[in-house]
Specification:
alpha+beta; Archaeosine Trna-guanine Transglycosylase, Chain: A, domain 4; five-stranded mixed sheet; 5 helices
C-alpha cells in the first residue's frame, strides 16, 4: 500500500507522526478505514521516503479542520491560506461545499525514522533545535 505526496508540506514527512488531508469520497474513506493499522510506503514525488503505520482515520469538514488547527501542522498555513489551497485543489469536485466540504484526515506514524523514546525528536532534529534556538531538549 502507498500514500502519495507531491509536496512535503511543513517538512511533515520527517516527523514521527504526520497528517494528510484528502478530499472525501466514500471509496477512499472505506479504503483507509479498512487499512487502519496497516503499513504504507510513503511516496514523495515518485520516490519512497519511508514507511508509516496508518494510526487514525477520521472525517471532518473543512471548517472543523481550520478551527482545530490541523492546518498549521499539516501544511504550515494559516486558516485563510489553507482554505484557499483546498478550494484551488477541490472546487471542481462534485461534493465541494465551501466550508462544509468533507475531508478525510489521516494520521500516520513513521516507522523508518530514528526517534528518541524520551521526546519523540530525532537526534538530527535535536542538534538543529539546539543550534537554532540555543536551547536544550526539555
Amino acid at each position: 500500500m502507498e500514500i502519495k505526496f507531491c509536496k512535503n508540506w511543513n517538512n511533515k514527512l520527517n516527523n514521527k507522526y504526520f497528517t494528510t488531508i484528502r478530499y472525501l469520497t466514500s471509496s477512499k474513506y472505506f479504503y483507509y478505514q479498512n487499512n487502519e493499522g496497516n503499513i504504507f510506503d510513503v511516496i514523495l514525488k515518485g520516490n519512497k521516503v519511508s514507511t508509516a503505520r496508518l494510526v487514525d482515520v477520521s472525517q471532518k469538514d473543512l471548517a472543523d479542520i481550520l478551527t482545530s488547527g490541523i492546518n498549521y501542522t499539516d501544511a504550515a498555513l494559516d486558516a485563510d491560506d489553507f482554505y484557499e489551497m483546498m478550494k484551488r485543489m477541490y472546487h471542481n469536485k462534485d461534493l465541494w461545499d465551501d466550508w462544509e466540504t468533507k475531508m478525510i484526515v489521516l494520521i500516520f506514524k513513521n516507522k523508518d525514522k530514528n526517534y528518541s523514546s524520551k521526546s519523540g525528536m530525532s537526534e538530527e532534529y535535536k542538534r538543529e533545535y539546539k543550534k537554532v534556538f540555543n536551547k536544550e531538549d526539555r
